[in-house]
Structures are given as structure tokens and as C-alpha cells.
Automatic annotation (TrEMBL):
Keywords, in A-Z order: ATP-binding, Kinase, Nucleotide-binding, Transferase
Encoding gene per record: pfkB
Residue ranges annotated for the Carbohydrate kinase PfkB domain, each copy included: 17-285
Gene3D superfamilies according to UniProt: 3.40.1190.20
Pfam family, one: PfkB
GO CC list: cytosol
UniProt GO molecular function: 1-phosphofructokinase activity; ATP binding
Species assigned in the record: Streptomyces fungicidicus
PANTHER family reported in the protein's UniProt record: 1-PHOSPHOFRUCTOKINASE, 1-PHOSPHOFRUCTOKINASE-RELATED
UniProt keyword annotation of ATP-binding present: yes
SUPFAM superfamilies attached to this UniProt entry: Ribokinase-like
Example GO biological process: small molecule metabolic process
Assigned protein family: Belongs to the carbohydrate kinase PfkB family.
Name listed for the protein in its UniProt record: 1-phosphofructokinase
Lineage top rank: taxon: Bacteria
């Protein structure tokens, strides 16, 4: 079982539009409503892979009830933490050329009691989990140190934890030695405080996160591929994506692919790459199932192309 924790879940509405022009009426050609948040997306991808998952998330108001109902309809067990504030609603506009515009609401402010109940719920469920994936931004009311406290409690319960967050929460959590951290290129650049122009720059940044406490780093580099750096070395994985429709949840799908494949080594990296490449070719935040994956198209090597420029340099 893979347990996910989403401190700031959402109800996500995705509209597919031909193009976006400010100040004009834009007619959507497609529409989806999905439960959202990075940890929620990981659960959805794990469920699509046919594995059991439990989603821990604070829920409030009518949007929270709808999120729970949508997850239940997808066969995902929900461990709700009731909160007084309403769960946030987000909007994504996906253009046909692959450009995505997102409007993310701030979400409710959690009280001290609600924060503690969220931590205690994870601690209570942790012993039954193969992996715990804690993902996304922190809602109002939670200090950057909250993820560090969560990592410590998970380890005290004897479980493994993968962390996907950014900003001050990431360096704060590293001191508790999360088993895996999963930044993208921009988050890597932010964490080390300098731009990344090449794959080699990303590799060096990943190594610095390991030196700061991360036991392994799974770094998504967008169209350039993914890096895995751990005690056994470094691997670089790539796969073609014929037509990019939406990158919403692609990184979350990658993390799910990594964890369902064991969460360690080149085989897990190959699974992460296959899941990420499949996700970007699906509409909105649809998570890929086994039929969408093209494992034969994935290449994983220990020969990291350190001099290769990133197509989207991170600053």
C-alpha cells in the first residue's frame, strides 16, 4: 500500500482551449473536474497502476466533499481530516500547443488542532504502508518545519517517505533525512540558489541535496528526462513524448511510477520515466494506466550527459 499525504488538496477544473487571449471570450473544447493536489495525483496514478493507495488529506466544505466522492469513485481509499475551512478550487487552461495556465487558490488556514490531527492520522496509518508520499505546498497556518516533523514521525513509525515540495519546506525537511525527494529543475535551482543550464548542473544540485540530508533524489527535468541519484550512483532516464497535451500531474505520475516499482534503483527510474512520458500525452490531469505506458521506449543509463544543455534552463 502507498499512503499519500496532501496538506493542501484541491478541486481542479481543467479546460482545453484553442488559444488564450486576455480580455476575450474563450470557448473551451473540453472540460474535466478532478480531485487535485500533488499527493492526490500520486494516489490516482497508483490506483491506475492497479495498486492499493490511501489518501490522507484535510477536507472541508462542499469542495472537500466532492473531492472525497471523486476519489472514492476511482477506487481510492480516503482518510479525511475534517477542517473548518473549505477545500480550495483551482482552474487550469490547457492550450492545444501544450501551454498551460494555472490559477491556484490559497486554500484554508489550518488551526493548530487540525495540523496535529493531520500529523497523527499519518502516524497512525504509517505502519501499514510500503511508502508514504508527502507532496505539495503547505496550506496557510503550517510552518515550513511541518514537513520536517512529518518526516520524523514517519521514520519513528518505521516507514519510508518520499517528499515532493519546494520553498523553505524542502531544506527544512532535509535535516530529517527523507528517503527520496523529488524536485523538478526549477525547484532544484531554488534549493541550491543558482541557475541550472545543463544536465550536469542538475546532477551537481541533486548531489548537494543528498549532502544536505536526502537519501535519494529523483529529479524531473521536463522534456530532458529524469535523474536518480542515491548511494549506489547516478542514472539518467529519457523517453519520447510524441504529442504533449498537458503536463498537469506529470511529475506526480512519475513519482507514483517510481514508488510502485519499488522506489529504488534504475528499474524504478525507468518506471518513473514511462509514467511521466505517458502522463503528458493525456488530457488535463488524467493519470496513465498500464495500456498507456511504453516501457520499451525508455532509456536508462549511468552515462549522465553532463554537458547537455537543458531545453528549459532553470533559474
Amino acid at each position: 500500500m502507498i499512503l499519500t499525504v496532501t496538506p493542501n488538496p484541491s478541486l481542479d477544473r481543467t479546460y482545453e482551449v484553442p488559444s488564450l487571449h486576455r480580455g476575450e471570450v474563450v470557448r473551451a473544447t473540453g472540460e474535466r473536474v478532478d480531485p487535485g493536489g500533488k499527493g492526490v495525483n500520486v494516489s490516482r496514478a497508483v490506483a491506475a497502476a492497479g495498486r492499493r493507495t490511501v489518501a490522507v488529506l484535510p477536507l472541508g466544505g462542499a469542495p472537500g466533499a466532492l473531492v472525497a466522492g471523486l476519489l472514492d469513485a476511482q477506487g481510492i481509499e480516503v482518510a479525511p481530516v475534517p477542517v473548518a475551512g473549505a477545500t480550495r478550487s483551482n482552474i487550469a487552461l490547457a492550450e492545444t500547443d501544450g501551454v498551460l495556465t494555472k490559477i491556484n487558490a490559497p486554500g484554508p488556514q489550518l488551526t493548530a488542532d487540525e495540523q496535529e490531527l493531520l500529523l497523527d492520522t499519518v502516524r497512525r496509518l504509517a505502519p501499514g504502508a510500503d511508502w508514504i508520499a508527502c507532496c505539495g505546498s503547505l496550506p496557510r497556518g503550517l510552518a515550513p518545519s511541518w514537513y520536517a516533523e512529518l518526516v520524523a514521525r514517519v521514520h519513528d513509525a518505521g516507514a519510508r517517505i518520499a517528499l515532493d515540495t519546494s520553498g523553505p519546506a524542502l531544506p527544512a525537511a532535509l535535516r530529517e533525512r527523507p528517503d527520496v525527494v523529488k524536485p523538478n529543475a526549477e525547484e532544484l535551482a531554488e534549493a541550491v540558489g543558482r541557475p541550472l543550464a545543463t544536465v550536469g548542473d542538475a546532477l551537481k544540485a541533486a548531489e548537494e541535496l543528498r549532502a544536505a540530508g536526502a537519501r535519494a533524489v529523483l529529479a524531473s527535468l521536463g522534456a530532458d528526462g529524469q535523474l536518480l541519484v542515491d548511494d549506489d550512483g547516478a542514472w539518467f532516464g529519457t523517453a519520447p513524448a510524441d504529442a504533449v497535451r498537458s503536463n498537469v500531474g506529470a511529475g506526480d505520475s512519475s513519482l507514483a511510477g517510481f514508488l510502485v516499482a519499488g522506489g529504488r534503483g534504475p528499474g524504478a527510474l525507468a518506471s518513473a520515466v514511462a509514467h511521466g512520458a505517458a502522463a503528458v500525452q493525456l488530457p488535463g490531469s488524467v493519470m496513465p494506466g498500464p495500456a498507456d505506458l511504453k516501457h520499451s521506449a525508455v532509456t536508462v543509463t549511468t552515462e549522465v550527459p553532463v554537458n547537455r544543455p537543458l531545453r528549459e534552463p532553470a533559474s
